[in-house]
Amino acid sequence: MGLFGKSFNEKVTEAVAEIKKMNLGVRNLSADVAGEVVTLRGEAASRQIATRVMEEMDQRVKPDNIVNAIKIDKPAPAPAPAAAPVVTEADEESPTERYHMVVKGETLSHISAKYYGKANQYMKIFEANRDILDNPDLIKPGQKLRIP
Fold it and tell me: What is the CATH number of the domain that holds 51?
């Protein structure tokens, strides 16, 4: 323990233990620390679960950045629906999810600053959109990004 309380590593270790107790559905949850950057590892059934774990860590520890390296299970093939439901624009965006349409000249840092007040939180947006983004530096106008 440091002069002014717990070390950053101790805070991360405690946060991992607390998140494990929440039974969010992540197996083998662990965290690596490099400076004030936390890399989360483990396996989860969905991207939503991995994102929730990242948000819980951010609330508890307030790191400079979080890298979400939680592996997502491959989903089992879904049975074909009897009739495809009609999806309206209102159904597409639930009240708890936000979206941002990328315009020319924007970066994830710009978008992060707009929604979180901090440009360095861009990895949250990248991790929430891994299904459409391969590189946080390569976003394109017209992409619709989830904002966790």
Answer: 3.30.70.1350
Structure-token match 């983004």, residue found:
133
Look at residue 116 and tell me if it is in a domain.
yes
Query: Shortest CA distance to 123 belongs to which of 104, 137, 106, 136?
Result: 136
Mean pLDDT value across residues 96-101? 78
The radius of gyration computed from the CA coordinates of the chain, to the nearest angstrom, equals 17
81-97 pLDDT, tens digit each: 555 455 444 444 445 66
pLDDT band at 15 (very low <50, low <70, confident <90, very high): very high
Q: Is residue 135 part of a domain?
A: yes
Q: Are residues 12 and 63 in the same domain?
A: yes
Domain residues for the domain of 142 are 94-147
d(CA 34, CA 54): 16
Judge whether 124 and 138 are in contact, CB under 8 Å.
Answer: no
Please report the beta strands in the chain, taking only residues with DSSP state E, as ranges in sequence order: 26-34, 37-44, 65-72, 98-101, 144-147
